[in-house]
Structures are given as structure tokens and as C-alpha cells.
Amino acid sequence: MAEVDGASPKGGCQGRPAVGFEPLLRMNPAQQRVGLCDEGIENALYASHSIRGCVGINLARGSTLDALTLRKICGLRDEHQFVERIFEAIKGPLADNGRAIA
């Protein structure tokens, strides 16, 4: 998490409260797994308790992500190479346990 926390969206005094960065990182795999576009995953977060659970969003405690935020996060993900950096960070601990990512 320290690898990507610097680009985490910060809450301002206007608009929606900021969603933590961990749900944002979980969003993309969930979106890819169910094959939804940004607007589709936004709707699924409101409609599906299981997807909200996977992503780590609780509607009773705060808001969810909108499609515009998702597009911005995808841009940040690509610009800062978050996926590659995360995989590099976990390769060592996995190798220590005799596991690897293909």
C-alpha cells in the first residue's frame, strides 16, 4: 500500500468524501472479473452486495465510486505503473513460500 498511497485521492471540502485507496485497488480486478465497463461496475456496486464486499465498500458508512473516479484511477494506475509495482513488491514474499506469479 505504501507504494501507491502517494497518489491516493484525498477528500476535499466539496463533493463526495474520498474513498480509501484499497477499495480502488480492488475495483479493477473485480471489474475485469465480471467484464463490466466503468459505468457497469458503478451500477454493480449499488446493486450487488457481493461485489461491494469484494471491493470493501459499505454503503451504510460512506459513498461508493462513480464512473468518472474509476476512469481517473485507471489513468493513475497506468501512469504510475501500480500493477507492476505491486507485483514486484509481492514476488519476494511469495518466493520465500515457494510460490510464484506467472
Q: Which key terms come to mind for this protein?
A:
globular; 102 residues; 58% helix; mainly alpha
Description:
With 102 residues, the chain is mainly α. The protein has one domain. It has 5 helices and no strands. Helix 2 packs across helix 4. The mean pLDDT is 77.
Low-confidence stretches: none
Query: What is the count of structural domains?
Result: 1
Instruction: Tell me the distance between the termini.
Output: 22 Å
Radius of gyration: 15 Å
What is the topology?
Blueprint: H1 21-34, H2 38-47, H3 49-55, H4 67-79, H5 82-96
Helix pairs in contact: 2-4
Could you write a compact summary of the structure shown?
With 102 residues, this protein is mainly α. It has helices spanning 21-34, 38-47, 49-55, 67-79, 82-96.
